[in-house]
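User: Hey, my collaborator sent me this sequence without any context and asked if I could get a structure. I don't really work with proteins. Can you help?
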Amino acid sequence: MQLSIDRLSKQFGAKIAVDRVSADLNPGVYGLLGANGAGKTTLMRMLCDVLRPTAGDILLDGRSTRDLGEDYRALLGYLPQDFGYYPEFTALDFMLYMAALKGLPRRDARARSLELLSIVGLEREAKAKIKTFSGGMKQRLGIAQAMVNDPVILVLDEPTAGLDPKERVRFRNLIASFAQDKIVVLSTHIVSDVEYIADDILVMRAGQFIMQGAPEVIVRQMEGRVWECHVDARLVDELAARVCVANAHYADDGHAVVRVVADEPPVLAGADGGAAGGGRAGDAGTPPKPLAPTLEDLYLYVFRDEPHA
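Assistant: No problem. I've predicted the 3D structure and written it out in structure-token form, which is a compact way to encode the shape of the chain:
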């Protein structure tokens, strides 16, 4: 099975949200990374046939999904970023409703619904009303409904929103178990979730794919751009104004250990007007130390100029 994105574009008035993107997706997990406004949700809605592209096509094993129509939609599972629930429904009623919408036979729908509620840890809440659920419980219910028709193409837009760390681990394990013979497209701002479970990463900026590859391959592009610096704690803000500071740990002696993502080891003026660490952002005699990069470092580097949401 192969899902091909062929020069796909979507334009809203004068705004180009997705700009001639192409990729071939085979069974596995694809992590879609990008800042707000990069075009991720628009792309995912086109993959799910919720939006029609302005140009280009989506092909399943060489056939246009537009020609496949309902046969293609029957293969999909989708969890949108803003998923709507009926608050007065119980979890089981909601699953049965979604199963009916997706055409499952009534004799199979109940067993499948109960199985999925158990898998996502909601078996005890099967008869509880959704209005009583926490955000994380609703998100787990959303994942369950996306799987109710046993889709071969699963599209998840910000599925870990509202989940605590323990629930995110459960989610990653669920996706790993679901993805053995499926194409899974996953978008999230929690970069570590993508790093743990994605076989391939698609980095999207301004409507285009700017990087694609296995996590370890694209992270390798950041080698020589991540540094550990020891600086006067009073100078951290100055450093952050010029380069990307991933994190800073402050010590009691007035120094800070800072993780910096930059093309070169940063130079920082000292608080006394001299240069810190002999011209580099480090203690005297302690030059910045290169660190192994992570996917989060790459994200911060690529989107360092993007405005905050």
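In plain terms: Residues 106-119 form the longest helix (14 residues). You can pass these tokens on to your collaborator as they are.
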